[in-house]
Amino acid sequence: MASTAPITVSLASALKTTRSRQRDLEQLSPFELKDYLITLAKDSQQTAVSTMLNAGRGNPNWIATEPRDAFFLLGQFAMKEARRVRDDGILAGMPPKKGCADRLRKFLSKNKGAAGADFLAGVLEYGVKIKNFVPDEWIHELTDSVIGDNYPVPPRALVHLEQILHDYLVKEMCDGRPPKGKFDLFPVEGGTAAMCYIFDSLMQNGLLKQGDTIALFLPTFTPYIEIAHLERFQFKIVAINASSVRADGTHDWHYPAAEIAKLENPKIKLAVTVNPSNPPSVAFSPIEMKQIVGLIRKNPDLVLVTDDVYGTFVPNFRSLMAEVPHNTICVYSFSKNFGCTGWRLGVIATHEKNTMDRRIAELPASWKKRLEKRYGAMTMEPEKLKFIDRLVADSRNVALNHTAGLSLPQQVQMGFFALSHLLDLKDAYKHLTMQIVRARRDALWRGLGVPLPPEDPMRGWYYVELDFMVWAKNTYGDAFCKYMTSNYEPVDFLFRLAEKSGVVLMDGGGFGGPPWSIRISLANLDDGDYSRIGKYMVDAATEYVEAWKAGQLVRSGPTAGKGQKVKASAAKRTAAGKGAAKKAARKAVKQAVKQAAKAERSARKGAK
Ligand SMILES: Cc1ncc(COP(=O)(O)O)c(C=O)c1O
């Protein structure tokens, strides 16, 4: 006769955050969820021996030195120049143009050995010898801009600096093999501003409409998923999933041909990709690229927005801007490569001949009339305004176009970052950043105690995305996977790591990746930290395995918190319920962050 004894499950030790609370918090963006995990990790830091290891952040912990040294030295030279014109002590004139390049040469020979002097000499020579710039024009653009005493003119990009940025994009985004023609550039306040401006202008110019169908290559930077759902846009999303797996079931994070083929759907007006991807940090392979190129021939109206912020971490990287230049709007950010997130430096690039301009020219008469009115005060021929110039105007509500443009000191620093790669013929800096993240990868895998995945030349290793379920299935089979899905939320592993070990990682599911996947940033901690993180991950995973193996034993840890239920299926809820849960979760995060800040303040007071 079958036993009538109640079936009990053994669970890993209970956490402070109950399963129902985890479910609520799961609704949040992984970036907000991370704040909550940080409070848990800080708590663990206060009560245990561990220090918090926050590998959730994408902010690199290195900075490029030479272009910064040169920026500050240029500032000193420019101040001298300003004082030549007028010097009332607390007030000076504007840096003069005539003879400024010669004066810079003299200044540099007097300041030989000063930090940034060699680089600045290289800047002058690159402009004069490689670009054939008129020396005074080139140097005056820099001195006047570093001082910031004029509005950006032209607003879109400074004349000489645009050419420097162009060379950088050709070298780093096109692997030195650009397509025919040139790109028009619009330097902006980071990739963040770039995306806001692009979505806005596509809508303003009738290239996208509310409710349109767009494709997102997944996983992706979470904000791009969230933007698509905003009230203003309400796009229908076609997911292009990086669902390719190796023979052993592990993800290689590439896109199967069938996924990319979804772009053949003529309803898709726009496709957005992060290349190399975030989190997996894997760039399109030549095969994937070839398929996209072929596809554009069939669907020539398709606009591709490619965010290539991690491009320099992949050897010989080639962006969509190089392969399908006419259809691509490229977003490049200097933030990660140069460790300059605080500077807010990014650039939008469109090819001089592009689909956006063609499609605008083909708009119905009613739209054309509307756009003539919109841009009519700016130019006598609004219909000839290029999409990139519309971006500039739209970024300042058109009416303020004459004071648009990125701040000039920002354009100078951006140009110097670009020049640091153009002057570095051995690519020493780029190789160093690649080495840093790869050494951390090796340390992480040492800690995990498993072999590294097979080599992939398209992989940048800025982040790692690990899928807990793939590991669970490969190591312990379906029964263990079922035990996990029945008894825990996918984010339980993250909560366990934060609470027990002070390690903060991010929820890969929130990036549109597999629900049990985890993002680890290799950019912001020291090598030794990564092997510790690997070990802590093994410890956390072992807890589940041991509890599962304990089988019929009753839970031995403290009781689950209020509201914790065992069945995962109970997670299904109505949309209204989800909204309320999200609100509650946001409140919980705010409260937890407040509490943690208070605890930190009182801990600091106590330490004084
Ligand atoms: C894919 C991607 N794009 C853009 C950004 C933000 O770039 P920026 O600092 O230039 O605004 C990030 C930051 O993490 C990112 O991961």
From TrEMBL:
<feature type="domain" description="Aminotransferase class I/classII large">
    <location>
        <begin position="191"/>
        <end position="530"/>
    </location>
</feature>
<dbReference type="GO" id="GO:0006531">
    <property type="term" value="P:aspartate metabolic process"/>
</dbReference>
<comment type="similarity">
    <text>Belongs to the class-I pyridoxal-phosphate-dependent aminotransferase family.</text>
</comment>
<protein>
    <recommendedName>
        <fullName>Aspartate 4-decarboxylase</fullName>
        <ecNumber>4.1.1.12</ecNumber>
    </recommendedName>
</protein>
<dbReference type="InterPro" id="IPR050596">
    <property type="entry name" value="AspAT/PAT-like"/>
</dbReference>
<dbReference type="InterPro" id="IPR015421">
    <property type="entry name" value="PyrdxlP-dep_Trfase_major"/>
</dbReference>
<feature type="region of interest" description="Disordered">
    <location>
        <begin position="557"/>
        <end position="581"/>
    </location>
</feature>
<dbReference type="InterPro" id="IPR022518">
    <property type="entry name" value="Aspartate_4-decarboxylase"/>
</dbReference>
<dbReference type="InterPro" id="IPR015424">
    <property type="entry name" value="PyrdxlP-dep_Trfase"/>
</dbReference>
<dbReference type="InterPro" id="IPR004839">
    <property type="entry name" value="Aminotransferase_I/II_large"/>
</dbReference>
<keyword id="KW-0663">Pyridoxal phosphate</keyword>
<dbReference type="GO" id="GO:0008483">
    <property type="term" value="F:transaminase activity"/>
</dbReference>
<dbReference type="Pfam" id="PF00155">
    <property type="entry name" value="Aminotran_1_2"/>
</dbReference>
<dbReference type="InterPro" id="IPR015422">
    <property type="entry name" value="PyrdxlP-dep_Trfase_small"/>
</dbReference>
<dbReference type="GO" id="GO:0047688">
    <property type="term" value="F:aspartate 4-decarboxylase activity"/>
</dbReference>
<feature type="compositionally biased region" description="Low complexity">
    <location>
        <begin position="566"/>
        <end position="579"/>
    </location>
</feature>
<dbReference type="GO" id="GO:0030170">
    <property type="term" value="F:pyridoxal phosphate binding"/>
</dbReference>
<keyword id="KW-0032">Aminotransferase</keyword>
<keyword id="KW-0808">Transferase</keyword>
